[in-house]
Amino acid sequence: MTASGHPTSATGPLPADTTEDVRARRPAMAVLPIGSFEQHGAFLPLTTDTVIACTIAREVAAGRPVQVLPPLTVSCSHEHADWPGTVSISARTLHAVVTDIADSLHRSGIDTLILINGHGGNYVLRNVVQESAGRGVRMALFPGSADWDAARTRAGVETPSHTDMHAGEVETSILLYAHPELVKEGYESADCVADDRKQLLTLGMSAYTESGVIGRPSLASARKGRELLDGLTEAFGEYAALFGDRAAADA
């Protein structure tokens, strides 16, 4: 159990609302954490992206009339296929699942869906949001690159974003703060820089790293993780205001 009494799993806190809780709160917005099930080196779990997406969703939803949905835990991780444990679905399937969820929410009276994406390889989510115009459900993808850039600056992240691609300073910092029990020993000596990776999508991650890490996890800290989450929570206010969030309007 978490400190708030919510049940937990390998992917983090699960929503504990009853149908009457949702009825009383009358949410106009839902957030959908989308992660992955892929290798993150020898020191972070396969569920890293899902844990991070759930953590961000929990932070941004606090104090707002928002319905937090259970996460999508398997997505598009094909570039990691050379490592044991990685599981993927097609971009077509991910597109269909997210669109179906949006349509279901619309039928229940929720017309805004924010996709909280924890995996950079889920490129198709941009198309899902792009195509949502005119379907009756307003959608957005969060965090965007500008949101991450601002949060990285706030936290004092030292590794450039291109270098800090996978299981690096940012991801390790967030888990060190939010779920330190999931971080195993070894991140302090697992740095791998592979800035020249033009053929990543064609060749996969294994062409550029033996460990599965691309970044500098040795620079990670719980303090940076806390500041990263605070920065993203602040950035989400713009999205909430854009969609007429009542809590943002009252602030």
Automatic annotation (TrEMBL):
<feature type="compositionally biased region" description="Polar residues">
    <location>
        <begin position="1"/>
        <end position="11"/>
    </location>
</feature>
<keyword id="KW-0378">Hydrolase</keyword>
<dbReference type="InterPro" id="IPR024087">
    <property type="entry name" value="Creatininase-like_sf"/>
</dbReference>
<feature type="region of interest" description="Disordered">
    <location>
        <begin position="1"/>
        <end position="21"/>
    </location>
</feature>
<keyword id="KW-0479">Metal-binding</keyword>
<dbReference type="GO" id="GO:0046872">
    <property type="term" value="F:metal ion binding"/>
</dbReference>
<dbReference type="GO" id="GO:0016811">
    <property type="term" value="F:hydrolase activity, acting on carbon-nitrogen (but not peptide) bonds, in linear amides"/>
</dbReference>
<dbReference type="GO" id="GO:0009231">
    <property type="term" value="P:riboflavin biosynthetic process"/>
</dbReference>
<protein>
    <submittedName>
        <fullName>Creatinine amidohydrolase</fullName>
    </submittedName>
</protein>
<comment type="similarity">
    <text>Belongs to the creatininase superfamily.</text>
</comment>
<dbReference type="InterPro" id="IPR003785">
    <property type="entry name" value="Creatininase/forma_Hydrolase"/>
</dbReference>
<keyword id="KW-0862">Zinc</keyword>
<dbReference type="Pfam" id="PF02633">
    <property type="entry name" value="Creatininase"/>
</dbReference>
